[in-house]
Amino acid sequence: MSVLLLDEGNDVSRQALTLARRFGEPRSVPIDAVQPFAPDALAAALATAADELDATAVVAAGTERGNEVMARLAARSGLPFAANCVAVELGNPLTLTRLRWGGSLLEEARMHTALPLLTVAPHALPVDQGPAPQPVNVKRPEERELAVHVVEHIQPSHGGVSLADAKVIVSGGRGVGSKEGFAIIEELASLLGAAVGCSRAVTSAGWRPHSDQVGQTGTKVSPEVYIACGISGATQHTAGLKGAKRIVAINSDPQAPLMLNADYTVTGDLKEIVPAISAEIRRARAGRTS
Amino acid sequence: MVLSDDARAINTQHLGFTMSPHEECGVEEAVRLIEANQGESVVVTLGPPEAVEQLRDAMALGIDRAIHLHSDGREWDGESTAAALLEAIRADEEAHGHFDLIFFGNESADSAGYQVGIRIAYALGRPCVTGLKKVTLEGASVRCEQEVEDGRDVYVVPLPAVLTVKEGLNLPRYPSVPGRMRARTKPVHVIAPTRPEPRLELVRLALPAGAGRRAESLGSGPAAAPAVVEVLVKAGVL
To answer: Which ipTM score applies to this complex?
Structure first.
């Protein structure tokens, strides 16, 4: 019995492989089998391969690319599709657990289908150490399947530290009060070589660009330290913090959700506390060099 | 989050409803395109009768009319949501002509199925581009910028097309008072589709275990600064 994997060659794909092995002997369609990227052609390739192998399931990584190609496969095959699964229990129907609300909620569901189409959420399963799956031969795609394809790639234009890779992030919320109020956040960030982040309330108010937004609909981050200043901690925001190792929350409201879910808290006015931390860092550095 | 007694929904007694962030940007983009190019914009949703408030919000931003598919309050999976919306879109296109562009959120904030827009595009036989952070009309085509890990990928597809968008595409405007007034009298066409048996059937919801951290207080006010610096030193980032 064969199971088919859309392989992106990354850690999430190897996690997807861990789950795929539950369904049989894994075979793969590499995501670069069609170049430049053309999601309809990849979905067609998966459909053909699943048919020829008489596959028991098709599995992919729960990445943007993985979810997109699998949804196209589901659309062209007329099958149900479950995105971002974290567990399955084989049987008919298949029982599965998947993430909702950016991972703030788990859904247990039954999938009624002869061919389950699933993606695996990042960080959900161990990275597979077993043998790599054997790739299937992908035929040249038909012209109409190439109607949607990448025609150009634009490099990111950011200077400074990128949110996704930052070791430290100093992030501001509604409590910062204004666009100008971010000066003290930026000062602390520059002292720490940190990236500046913000909550959705801040981008909605136009104080910071959306590229600074951390959360379910912004960037998901995984720093060593995340310093949240004046951020209440709506699930929209904390969905982006699942990878953060330590969270320091600074807020005037000790009952704010993030104050209850952080590792360290400081209660009070961030407009006094943040400059005091910056001053303390300068003092510590001066002490070290003198 | 608090779950309902049967664990099939979130207890929303003390929550307000809003449009999801991705969809709100789709609404804003549609309004801007019509402002710049003339024509008509329509908003459609599948939801309980109370969801008419979100349709009014979209019309307050400038959308011309709404189609409301009444759900029965139960969970509709991605497949049946797409089927119901497809039928409504087809009926509207027969009566009023085809849509040049149909916008969807890339994934919904709650169930995050990643599939409704794509299913509808396939059924209509139209090109679909997903995860967009920028959309530019170029005559009879649309140039689309998709957010990827190392920058953006660009696609150009002919109209009519289906586009799924993400927050950050634009900064949605706040509705004006006259906009809100006008929205009250704009037409809402109500349809009551029948819910098919879902093939992805929700059994129950659960809160993930161990999500909460145990917070340690470093004190209050500026006097806590040395303790914060100590945490940074221990973490090896200072």
So the answer is: 0.92
